[in-house]
Amino acid sequence: MKKIWKFISSMQFAMILLVVLAIACTVSSFVTQGQTYSWYAATYSERLAAIIIALHLDDAYHSWWFILINAFLCINLLLCNVIRLPQLISRTKNEGDPIKVATGAAETATGIEKPETIFEKLHMPKPIKTTDEAGREMLFSSKNRIGLWGAWVCHFGVLLLILGFSLGQMTKQTYTAYGVPGQSRFIGDTGLVLTIDDFTVDLREDDTVSQYTADITVRDMSEGSGEIRSESGTISVNHPATLFGMKFYQNSTGWAARVQITEKGEPLQDEVLCAGEYLAIETMPDLVVYFNAFYPDFVMTDSGPMTMSGVVKNPAYLYTVYYQNSILGMNVLMGDEPLTIDDYVVTFTEPQSYTLIQIKKDSFTWLAFVGGLVTLVGLFFAFYLFPVKVWAVKEEDGTYTMNGLSRKGGALFKEQFAQAVAGKEENIEG
């Protein structure tokens, strides 16, 4: 049993887990998440689809293997820290104990008349007066003992990072909403309603897009929420907004159009459709108009309809009409050209851009953020705070023997100690 625990808490086991996790996540990144077996079979092959479903690669971050790997990784890091803790506490105490000074690897200088000057040049705290084991007078000072905790703090920060990321991925909720200014959409089952207040597409001089920007308002419409609360924000590509504890991202855009339907000359329906949506005729539900695509600068080529630019110059609407799930016709309407179907007239007008917004709720982002900060603090301790202790022992002739030790400072401290003893006036970095 001891051998098992020793292996689980070893660095070797941690490296194995990290490699396995990296490989698994890399493979999963090439697999579209959340699809059905039939979708994977049609996209890849039936054999690959079976493997994807069997290994839960279709929902990698909720799979048993993802949870198991991260659980073992967290146990490994926790055990490493717990096992090292007593030794680290003891070592920290020893660094500040004037009785437990080491002499083997220490820098030494004899015949020092004013040891306080050396302490000052090495930027040491004011030394304390005590006696050594032989009863001689001794001055002792230590600093940066917290530097001994650098690796331990780093391990703890990485543990928090892994926990925050893993729990976040396992519990994360993702929603999408799209529409044009003025439209409102429910955000899944959250009870929140997203309203698109405005949406702009900024173009460069060559008509290419430089930025998408949406102004949004989110309202809490859930039952029992009492007074309706609302929060507003502006989102653009790479600049999300946080509303009601959720992140709102400007994901993509497309074209929408106003669709007006009359029956025997009388207005029947007037709605805004985004490309990819359909509209059933109210008085004949089996008759459906599907808005396939919009071409702002239409041109017909050998390979089919295309657009020459993103500017509305020669607008055209590609549509399909279905009756009882069978296609009646498919064609392109130019400009405000009407589509007549028996007593019905369908007109596409007012093309405009719609925004597609991705919404994410990750309840453990804060934990990953704290883990990142703790890791940075640990790196600072490890690489910038070198533990140093300096002591001076009074000899029989009244002079002092100076000793200095920095187990992590190495050659740098050796040079600093030599400069301080030599009486040089340069600033000494400690």
Short description:
The protein is of the alpha+beta class and 430 residues long. The chain has helices spanning 2-8, 11-29, 37-43, 46-54, 64-95, 115-121, 150-171, 365-384, 411-422, and strands at 107-112, 128-131, 137-143, 173-179, 184-186, 192-203, 209-220, 230-236, 241-243, 246-263, 266-274, 278-281, 284-295, 298-301, 304-307, 316-323, 326-334, 339-341, 344-361, 388-394, 400-405. Helix 5 runs antiparallel to helix 7 (150-171).
**Strand percentage, roughly?**
35-45%
Task: Indicate the mean pLDDT.
Answer: 88
Tally the helices: 9
Number of strands: 21
SSE-based structural type:
alpha+beta
Q: Which bin fits the share of residues in helices?
A: 25-40%
The overall number of domains is 4
Task: Compute the CA-based radius of gyration.
Answer: 35 Å
Spatial gap, N to C terminus: 46 Å
Largest sheet: 6 strands, antiparallel
The low-confidence runs, each spanning 5 or more residues with pLDDT under 50, are 424-430
Shape: elongated
What string, H for helix and E for strand, traces the elements in order?
HHHHHEHEEHEEEEEEEEEEEEEEEEHEEH
Structure description:
There is one protein chain. With 430 residues, this protein is of the alpha+beta class. The chain folds into four domains: 81 residues, no CATH class; 84 residues, 2-Layer Sandwich (TATA-Binding Protein), CATH 3.30.310; 87 residues, no CATH class; 100 residues, no CATH class. Helix content is 31%, strand content 38%. The protein contains nine helices and 21 strands. A hairpin with a 2-residue loop joins β10 and β11. α3 packs across α4, α5 packs antiparallel against α7 and α7 runs antiparallel to α8. The longest helix is centred in the first third of the chain and has 32 residues. It is elongated. The C terminus is likely disordered.
